[in-house]
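call fold(seq) -> tokens
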Amino acid sequence: MEKKPARVRLLDAAHELMLTVGLARTTTKEIAKAADCSEAALYKYFDSKEDLFIRVLTERLPQLTPLLNSLAAEPGRGTLTVNLTEIARQAALFYEQSFPIAASLYAETQLKRRHDDAMRDIGAGPHRPIEGLDAYLRAEQAVGRVRPDADTFAAASLLLGACAQRAFAYEATAQGVRPPVDEFAARLARTLLAGIGG
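ret:
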């Protein structure tokens, strides 16, 4: 079996270690070792551990931005229920997979600050999906499928906030289980539409 390219092995190793050990406790040395590379090779492909983390988020996890951009570019396509359900499904999966990685950011102030700076440098961050969903809902509002008085930014924040909450809140319940993603997304979309639908 042919060995994967070094960059792919590094991303795979970083993803696995960040999920199991956490970003704060994962070192570039450990990532390189798990990828069967030198630490120098890691720095050939990535500027820092934060850069590697951002690449794991953008290359290994479900992506909302392409979906949101596509929907905002063509309002009126599909039904709002189907579109919002798919947005909620993708968001719920993204937060489910990214939460264990990102949670350790909040344990170290300096790491969080470096991460936030790196995200700003590339024009990314946790606010971008909210802005993207807000843009989509405003486009739908312009064609009459969202009520004219609906607060699209608040609606976007509610939908994505609920998806983020699903990543960790439900594990504290007596059952200790997240709601199934497809059912959760459909219920969330229907509930949101009851408030903003045109």
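The CA atoms of residues 32 and 39 lie 5 Å apart.
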